[in-house]
């Protein structure tokens, strides 16, 4: 079975984890690998400016989220209900899932994760804090939490950051394990220390059954180690398939043509994760320089990888949205050949 991080209804035949309603679609067969694993995958490419794309799959429709595009620019968190990724805006215009910014934020929200726990929708997000400083005197980026009664919001942020390490913490994603335990996975923003250039690390901490409360102590589960990553891994997402755990992540700076989407093998939610692949799953291709941050969701009996390659127009960076099939074989995750199907209800 496949267990996904955060939102994403589960394909038929996949055991529900309690985070969403299982899809009634027929499970599609796994796609074959493409001729070159790091080549541009043929799939859906949406020409919309949407950094950090994330999809939450509900019973009757799906919800597309993306980060804000600047300080105090509305929508702070864009959300669009949709039933077909080719016509993303057909179910209504974008709305702001968090119209009221948290008091502790400097005004820019990104790296959104949404999960339903009971009747409550829990949103984890990243923002820079007004009054939390790193050792170099710069304001730190921290992880916050907001609650809502609908996937559309409004999500009401908690009064204080939930996670904020010495050099900041970003890119939260939630994971529901096969035993029902919930976990928060995130990146320690160590590349903010530009003097010592410490390799960045990925962390994990258990959540209480409410999906809101962190319990116990955090554990470091991965560290940037491959040359192509240039000491930087971020946007972590933990998945479980047939008893094996994988950490999907972005390596190298997201606006760098040398960046890519990589994968590590993990012992479980507490790690450790071993990064032994010397090349990314997806590298720079015709979609744009650097595939950007990624997220995985299950819909229509298949698993999908959504990400945000950079398309540069003059001096401006426009973050496209691309969707590809992802399969799981004996050697772990791979980008599969796209069969023309489009996720959505």
Notes on the protein architecture:
The chain is mainly β and 345 residues long. The chain is 0% helix and 42% strand. The chain has no helices and 24 strands. It has strands spanning 2-3, 44-46, 54-57, 62-66, 78-82, 95-96, 105-117, 120-133, 139-148, 156-157, 169-176, 182-188, 201-207, 219-223, 233-241, 244-251, 260-266, 273-274, 294-299, 302-307, 310-313, 316-319, 321-329, 332-335. The strands form 6 sheets. A 5-stranded antiparallel β-sheet has the order 1-15-16-17-18, with no helix packed on it. Strands 2, 19, 20, 23 and 24 form a 5-stranded antiparallel β-sheet that branches. The chain has a 4-stranded antiparallel β-sheet with strand order 3-4-5-6, with no helix packed on it. Strand 9 and strand 10 form a beta hairpin. The model is unreliable at 1-27 (pLDDT under 50).
List keywords for this structure.
five-stranded antiparallel beta sheet, globular
Q: N- to C-terminal separation?
A: 21 Å
Radius of gyration: 18 Å
SSE string: EEEEEEEEEEEEEEEEEEEEEEEE
Helical residue percent?
Answer: under 10%
Number of strands: 24
Which helices and strands, and how do they pair?
Layout lengths: L1 E2 L40 E3 L7 E4 L4 E5 L11 E5 L12 E2 L8 E13 L2 E14 L5 E10 L7 E2 L11 E8 L5 E7 L12 E7 L11 E5 L9 E9 L2 E8 L8 E7 L6 E2 L19 E6 L2 E6 L2 E4 L2 E4 L1 E9 L2 E4 L10
Antiparallel strand pairs: 1-15, 2-23, 3-4, 4-5, 5-6, 7-8, 8-9, 9-10, 11-12, 12-13, 13-14, 15-16, 16-17, 17-18, 19-20, 20-23, 21-22, 23-24
């Amino acid at each position: 079975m496949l267990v996904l991080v955060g939102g994403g209804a589960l394909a038929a035949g996949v055991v529900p984890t309690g985070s969403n309603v299982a899809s009634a679609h027929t499970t599609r067969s796994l796609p074959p690998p493409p001729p070159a694993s790091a080549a541009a995958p043929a799939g859906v490419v949406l020409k919309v400016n949407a950094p950090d794309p994330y999809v939450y799959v509900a019973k009757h429709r799906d919800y597309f989220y993306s980060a804000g595009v600047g300080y105090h620019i509305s929508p702070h968190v864009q959300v669009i209900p949709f039933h077909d990724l080719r016509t993303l805006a057909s179910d209504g215009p974008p709305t702001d899932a968090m119209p009221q910014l948290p008091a502790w934020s400097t005004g820019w929200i990104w790296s959104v994760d949404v999960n339903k726990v009971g009747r409550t929708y829990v949103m984890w997000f990243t923002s820079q804090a007004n009054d939390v400083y790193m050792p170099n005197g710069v304001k730190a980026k921290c992880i916050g939490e907001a609650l809502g009664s609908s996937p559309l919001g409004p999500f009401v942020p908690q009064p204080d950051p939930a996670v904020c390490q010495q050099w900041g913490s970003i890119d939260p994603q939630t994971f529901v394990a096969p035993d029902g335990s919930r976990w928060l996975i995130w990146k320690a923003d160590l590349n903010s220390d530009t003097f010592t250039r410490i390799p960045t690390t990925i962390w994990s901490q258990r959540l209480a059954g409410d999906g809101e409360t962190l319990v116990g102590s955090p554990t470091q589960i991965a560290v940037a180690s491959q040359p192509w990553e240039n000491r930087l891994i971020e946007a972590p997402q933990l998945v479980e398939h047939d008893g094996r755990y994988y950490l999907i992540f972005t390596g190298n700076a997201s606006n760098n043509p040398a960046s890519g989407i990589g994968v590590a093998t993990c012992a479980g939610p507490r790690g450790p994760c071993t990064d032994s692949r010397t090349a990314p799953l997806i590298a720079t291709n015709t979609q744009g320089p650097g595939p950007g941050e990624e997220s995985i969701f299950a819909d229509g009996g298949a698993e999908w990888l959504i990400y945000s390659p950079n398309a540069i127009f003059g001096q401006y960076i426009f973050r496209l949205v691309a969707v590809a099939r992802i399969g799981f074989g004996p050697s772990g995750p791979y980008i599969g050949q796209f069969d023309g199907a489009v996720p959505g209800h």
